[in-house]
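Data deposition worksheet. Section B asks for the primary sequence of the deposited chain exactly as it was used as input, without tags or linkers unless they were present during the calculation. Section C holds the resulting structure in token form. Section D is free text for depositor observations; keep each observation to a single sentence. Incomplete worksheets are returned to the depositor.
Section A, Depositor: J.P.
Section B:
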Amino acid sequence: MANWCNTDYRVLGNRDDIEKLYGILERLEGKNEPGTFRHFGSLWLGNIIKELGGDPGKVYCRGQVTSFAYDREKELLLVEVESAWREQSEAREFIQSRLPGIQVYWISEEPGEFIYEKHDRLENPFWPENFIFEFCGGGIREERMFFETLDQAAEYISNFIGKELKPSKDEIDKALEEYALSREDADDTSWAFCEYAKV
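Section C:
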């Protein structure tokens, strides 16, 4: 069974291309019928590829749009996708090839394999955070925080575990492992401290 990856997209650029993509999403959502690939619904990525004249059998597209919204004033399309394993780069690249006037920025999280990636613009980024910290104890999420810098992460996590830490990923990882093992619910504790890979 696949691990699920959640990806948030921000689509900018040529208004006609953005509105064409938005129109496809609206039309598919309105069909409200199953897609043609296993458990995915009408907003399966393969259906978008077909709408753009492609063959889903030749483009890896194991995912579906879970929500979308279009801000016409900002000419910004927001799309959320749930997919298997990681961000669906083949499907995205195909869509961009058919709508060459768009620029696509995205951030994705696949916590099962600790895959955290983003492709953001350099000026006025949509996602300024570079690190994510999650901690679950007793099967309940206790913390989920984002940080722009390692210094910010070290300060916050130092307070969380009650031990002063240097801004070093290795030191933070080691301290979190020791902290998790020291808890009474150690057998039911999980954590992640990851840096978003810039791709």
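Section D:
The chain has a mean pLDDT of 93.
The domain at 4-118 is CATH 3.30.70 (Alpha-Beta Plaits).
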